[in-house]
């Protein structure tokens, strides 16, 4: 007959083995929040503009306010095949903050997205709307990324596929895109790049990629462009 001591040891070992097995199971790739993340496409039954309007308050309010100043751009997001790198509210907050600090230092009145120069704002917002529908599959085989062409002004932009590391697996994390303004230069060091951390949102006429909240709307040109107009008006 087995001794009580032997039974206790055996039961303890069984519990330990079960805990180890459970730990390995919980750490397996199949249970990782990053497993099979790549190319998972969210779908929205509606246009790109309808998608923006359907999101919670505080997400795209600023973008929608800007688009409302340009009916042709609203039409593009409703009816054209495009790719939108969508700035969130925080992106505009940062840009306006720096502009108004600069204006205040010169004794000028603050501006809002409703009162900044329309021509300059049109130039900047169009750079976020790219001709044709593209997903990460279009970028994934291009190690150096792809040149893109914005609507209306045909301004050259650039996007590159990035696979983040996560859960201890190198290149095992979420897909993202680096979205860049090359400023007409072939030298990457001259570019300003922001990351789209939510990608491949599929609507009826577009693909939407959402920019990180740390992006400064206008790729650091917002203040200079708007102040230039203010300075000219004050001459």
What does this structure look like?
The radius of gyration is 24 Å and the shape is globular. It has 2 domains: 1-31; 42-233, Roll (FAS1 domain), CATH 2.30.180.10. The model is unreliable at 1-40 and 168-172 (pLDDT under 50). The relative contact order is 0.17. With 235 residues, the protein is an alpha+beta fold. The chain has helices at residues 4-26, 48-54, 61-68, 71-79, 89-105, 118-126, 136-139, 222-233; strands at 42-43, 82-86, 129-131, 146-149, 156-163, 175-181, 192-202, 206-211. The termini are far apart.
List keywords for this structure.
single chain, about 240 residues, alpha+beta, FAS1_dom_sf, FAS1 domain, 2 domains, disordered N terminus, 8 helices, Fasciclin domain-containing protein
Helix content: 25-40%
Shape assignment = globular
Beta-strand content estimate: 15-25%
Average pLDDT: 84
CATH homology superfamily of the largest domain: FAS1 domain
| Number of continuous helical runs | 8
Low-confidence stretches: 1-40, 168-172
Order of helices and strands: HEHHHEHHEHEEEEEH
Question: If you compute it from the alpha carbons, what radius of gyration comes out, rounded to the nearest whole angstrom?
Answer: 24 Å
> What is the domain tally?
2
Organism: Sphingobacterium kyonggiense
Protein name: Fasciclin domain-containing protein
């Amino acid at each position: 007959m087995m001794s009580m001591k032997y039974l206790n040891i055996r039961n303890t070992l069984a519990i330990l083995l079960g805990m180890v097995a459970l730990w390995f199971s919980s750490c397996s790739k199949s249970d990782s929040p990053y497993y099979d993340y790549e190319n998972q496409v969210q779908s929205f039954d509606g246009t790109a503009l309808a998608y923006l309007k359907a999101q919670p308050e505080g997400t795209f309010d600023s973008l929608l306010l800007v688009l409302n100043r340009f009916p042709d751009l609203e039409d593009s997001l409703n009816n054209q095949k495009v790719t939108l790198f969508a700035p969130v509210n925080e992106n505009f907050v940062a840009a306006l903050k720096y502009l108004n600090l600069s204006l205040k230092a010169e004794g000028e009145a603050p501006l809002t997205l409703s009162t900044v120069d329309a021509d300059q704002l049109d130039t900047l917002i169009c750079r976020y709307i790219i001709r044709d529908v593209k997903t990460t599959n279009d970028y994934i085989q291009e190690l150096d990324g792809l040149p893109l062409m914005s609507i209306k002004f045909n301004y050259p932009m650039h996007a590159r596929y990035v696979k983040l590391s996560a859960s201890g697996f190198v290149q095992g994390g979420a897909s993202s895109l680096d979205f860049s303004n090359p400023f007409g230069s072939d030298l990457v060091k001259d570019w300003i790049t922001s990351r789209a951390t939510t990608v491949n949102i599929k609507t009826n006429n577009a693909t939407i990629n959402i920019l990180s909240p740390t992006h400064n709307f206008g790729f650091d040109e917002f203040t200079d462009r708007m102040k230039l107009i203010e300075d000219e008006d004050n001459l």
